[in-house]
Description:
It is built from two helices and eight strands; from the N terminus they run βββββαβαββ. The radius of gyration is 13 Å and the shape is globular. The protein starts with a strand and ends with a strand.
Amino acid sequence: MKKIIKTDNAPAPVGPYSQAVRYGDILYLSGQIAIDPASNTMITDGVEAETEQVLKNIAAVLTAAGSSLDKVLKTTCFLANMDDFGKFNAIYEKYFGESKPARSTVQAMRLPKGALVEVDLIAYI
């Protein structure tokens, strides 16, 4: 029942974990930060650019697993600075539109590779 999901269209994990794990019809996606999978470099052009890349990475993993953004049930969003909440929300809403998942957003003291944004999620397939 457990299946590891891996795609070259999203960044490789920066530690000992999988991009996502499918168990039955549920997908658990590990936290994504703004690494461009083509160049393997961190996007550092501000919270909007990072959020765009994070959501592109998420969409790539969802597609590889046979899911999509409209099937996301719950996200957990980590921001390095809660003052970026409005900027983050503007990009986030563009990707999820009317298919808004349940969500938690917290400020994190430090994120991997100095990221400003990290998002993990649960989706169905």
